[in-house]
Structure formats: C-alpha cells, structure tokens
C-alpha cells in the first residue's frame, strides 16, 4: 500500500512528488502550490471526460456486437453495415477541405525524411543508444550484418576479405548518392581530395573528413591514414558515416512494463536526463566499465570558412500512454488518475526545461514539445487530447500549440475517420503512422462477433489492410502533412535479418512514408540508405487519391475456409508461442520490449502489440468454435516447453511448465480466455494486474 502525500487534494507517491517539485518544477521557477492547484482543476475537468470517452467505446462496441449477433448466419451486407456505423456515430461526417496549420516544427520532422527509432524509456542504455543513433557507421553496419552480400566474417578478429567487401559496397553507395563527374569513388586517389570540395553536394569539412548532403541527409566521408582501415585504403577513407535516425520516440507505452509509481518515476527520470542532457549509464563490457552519455554535436567548416554544427542526436519524441489505463502513482477524488493525463502533465513539464533552454544540448530548435499519443478512438478522443494539451500548456505557462502531437493510426475508428481525427488536432499534429499488430488486434476485436477471422498471415493480404496503409498516406497528403509532418510506417521486427529489410523496407518510401520504424541503431544506419537513394517528397507528389472507405470496412472474415487440423494447430501454436515468449519476460522481469525468438527461433523485437493480435485471434477462434479450450491449453503447454527451451541459457529465467499457476502462465491464459471481454481487446489491464502481483511477491 502506497503512503501518499497530499497536494491540493491530490494524493501523490512521495518520491514522485519530491522529484517533480525539486527537479522538474523548481528549475522552471513555477510556484509549486499554484501548480498543484492547477493540476487539481485540470483533473476535475478531464478525468470525467476521459471516463465518458471510455464508456462511449464500450457502448459502440456493444451495438456493433449486437448487430453482428442479430445477423448470424446471414451473408455480410456491406452497405447496410456502413449505414449502421453512420447511424450509431461510429462513422462521422468528413470535415471538408482543410490543411493542417502546425507551426514551429523542426526540420527532422517537417522537411527531412529518414528512419525513426522507438525505444523503451525505462532502459537508459537503450535510450542513449537510440538518441545517439543520429549518426551511424556504414562500414560497421555492413560488416556486422547480413545486409552485406558476402561470406560471414571468419572467426579470430578482423576478416580482411569481408572488410574488402564492405569497402567495395561503400564505394558503390557513394557512386549512387554522391556521383563524381569523371570517375568512380572506387578509383579515388589521395591526391584527389581537393577536387571533392567542388562537388555540388559538398557541405564542408569536419575534423575527420568531408561532409556531403543528398536528399536532405548528410554523409560524412572520413579520411584517416592512421586508422586500420584507412591505412590500407588507397584514398585513405577510414569510414563512411550516415545521418540516420533523425527522430526517436522514447516510449512510456507499449514497449515498457510500467505498473506503479516506482516504474513511472524511472521513466520520468530518464526523460529528464534526455532533456537536461546529463543522462548516463555505466555497464560492464569485456571486463571493463563503460559509461555511455549523449553525443555532442557534429561541427564542420562550410565552403565560406564559417564554423557550423549539426545535431549529434535524434530529435526526441516521448510517447505517452493512451486513455484507458490508470496508475496508482497518483490518486484524486478517491481513484487512480488516468495515466495518460499523468504522462501529459509530467512529460510536458520536463520538456518545458528544453523550451526554457535549461538543457546541455537542447532538443527542439523550434521551441516545440513532441508527444506521440497512441490508441485514440476517433475524432472525439483526438479533440480531447487537443483540449488536454491546451490545459497543460496553460498550467505550465507555455504558448499555445507548443505541445505537438503524433497521432498513431492504430485503432479502427481512427482509421475510418482519419481526416476528422487530423482536423481535431490540425494546429499541433506532426505525425501519423500505421502499424499492423495493434491495428489488426482492433480489427479483430471490433468485429469479434461477426465470425471467425482469417489466419494472421492471410490478414496481411486483406483488402482492409491494403486500404488502411494507402488511406493513411493519401489522407495525410490531402491535408497538407507533406513538408510539415511525418507520415510513418511500422516496424521491421527482425533485427538479425537486415538483408531482407534492405529489400523490403524501401517499399515504405515508395508508398509515400517519410519515416519508418526500425529496431536498432544499426538498422537505422542501413535504412538511411533508402532515403539517400530516393526522394520521398518527390514520390509523394506522384501518389494518387486515398483508398475508399468501403474497402477499409471490409471485415477479414474467413468465409468458406476449410482449414485442416494441421493448419489450425499451426496457427494456434504460432499465436501461443509468441504470446508466452513475450508474457514471461513482461510479467517476471518487467521487460516490455526485447528480441524474442518466434516459433521458428527467429529473433523478433516484440512489444505489447504482439499480445493484442495473438490473444484476440485465439479468442476469436475460440468464440466461434474453430478451436476448443482443451486445444488452447494443449498448445499453451507444448509452447511453454518450447519457450522454456529457448530461454534455457538465462540463469534468471523461471520455467513456465514448472509454474503453470504462476503469474506469467496465468496472465497468458487470462489474455486468451478473457480476451473477448477486454476493453477494445487491450492487454494492459490483465498484464498490469499480474505484474503487480509478481512485484508484490518480492
């Protein structure tokens, strides 16, 4: 039981209150008592509105469930279905022609195109790695991954043959992106250095080499005859460094397990460390203690001998949680407050130190705070967020629309009303994106009672998904996001399959996305090659109109499917293995994002969205009799044995099969067998419940 302190009627965890007052509010010279009074007033207005919006979600879902139940056994009538959604207010009228009016947006978001990282805010080391991924070594990225089409490195130190292949690939890349007038970079000699500064894309000299620019991104060609690579290179090139992760999202949501005040305080401390510029983390590497800190800026001298600099770090967003969850860190009026409101107030107050110029490096050069808001259902909830951010700006004495918003298009009611959602935040929107896992989870839950769904693999070729991906870009472009905001695409989940990523992920650019998520700094460096090769903003000019709404509303039912017993077992095992592999880390260790082996032992970067799609898919098949409870339990036990085997080398791992009544296995069962009744199919309520029990036992 938390021993709260009281501030203006708000019960607050004492450690959180002390941190907030001394380390966040005091440097801003804000009156602490006045702030808490204002916070209480804000809660008085927005907590009831938050509850009302959640109630509306449930009311709409109940009506949709009833509509499907009444028509059980009948062919789906798409026209009648759309009219029904309009009648109940699930679909709203289009807002008409408009263009977003967002101002003071940093170029990394508005006018540059490049990779984006999402990193769990609770892990300081990962957070620092991501923030420092603004610049990455192409040579290292190629040498250490299968993106290089060459035999693997031979053991025993540096492999000169693989190194030569890296250098050859690097020269080919330079010829593609920085072509020389009369020769190839492969033929460059040391005496040719001077001619490079006459190259049209030349930007200036750094302390390590020459800086160039293509498609808005920078390339640093480093020269060093003392370097092991540069010493044997005929031009003395020691590395090629790419501007890579332009933006990073520090995530308080799906990639973390934050269930109480202790967890939230760690999240907020790490965010403050990023904003102040003093976050550091020490760890053991090869028997030595290594301390990681934020990188400094990259300085150069331009062609006019003027000293300039480029940011050395990603521009940072912070992702708050959605509207659903509450957190015991703060209570008001006898209840836990909505966690999304808590995040909005605290992360904005921390970011206000950046606006006040109190950080070592600074984040936004335009005086903006960037918050990604997930899991909003439709324009009413977007309008609520807009009003909430207005209130937070007033509470912190910030100019209107200082706080910018990224809208995650991952809920069906948002996708179906995307133009109206954008309109609701048109003065502060800087980001929209798509994501298969959460969006499919909501697709299944919304139409849960309509019938059994297709297999997950077949979902990826569904009409609704193609329409979803195309509409997100088309509607974003129609309302002026190009050159003002990011249009993003989802994560490449396999960090060890960089060669395949390089083949497939360029499709995101060609679809019109000026950013896309990657799972690591190395992946960001490699994905940057795509943006250096192709001009997304030119691609956007040639794209057509958005896909039709009727296509988006096509329910992915498995009409006429006659799956074999083996196919059903394969699908069920795939879902259960992925669910268990992730849940055991979430519940037992509080790890919200990690590389989890899939059923084929391929490591995938998983977060909570994996649970949503897997648990909802099993719950749907269970509801409609495709599978039985006995089949689910059999699969869970067999897949628990596989997950135990996959984690056998972890000395802190507790086997699932030996703890079937323990929190992790119990959580997995609940996610499936209580899946139909979970609000919007979300996994957070059950995960938080079982994680809190696990923490209380230690």
UniProtKB/TrEMBL annotation:
Metabolic or biological pathway, per its Swiss-Prot or TrEMBL entry: Carbohydrate metabolism; glyoxylate cycle; (S)-malate from isocitrate: step 2/2
Any one Pfam family here would be: MS_C
* Positions that bind acetyl-CoA: 118, 125-126, 255, 292, 519
Whether Cytoplasm counts among this entry's keywords is: yes
Q: Which Gene Ontology CC terms are recorded?
A: cytosol
Predominant location: cytoplasm
Give the catalytic activity: glyoxylate + acetyl-CoA + H2O = (S)-malate + CoA + H(+)
**Residues the record lists as Cysteine sulfenic acid (-SOH) modifications:** 593
Q: Which keywords does this Swiss-Prot/TrEMBL entry list? A: Acyltransferase, Cytoplasm, Glyoxylate bypass, Magnesium, Metal-binding, Oxidation, Transferase, Tricarboxylic acid cycle
Query: Per UniProt, where does glyoxylate bind?
Result: 319, 410, 435-438
EC class, as a word, reads transferase
Q: Where does Mg(2+) bind?
A: 410, 438
What Gene Ontology molecular function terms does this protein carry?
Answer: magnesium ion binding; malate synthase activity
- Where is the Malate synthase N-terminal domain positioned along the sequence? 17-71
Output the HAMAP family linked to this UniProt entry.
Malate_synth_G
| Protein name per its UniProtKB record | Malate synthase G
Look up and give the organism this protein is from: Qipengyuania vulgaris
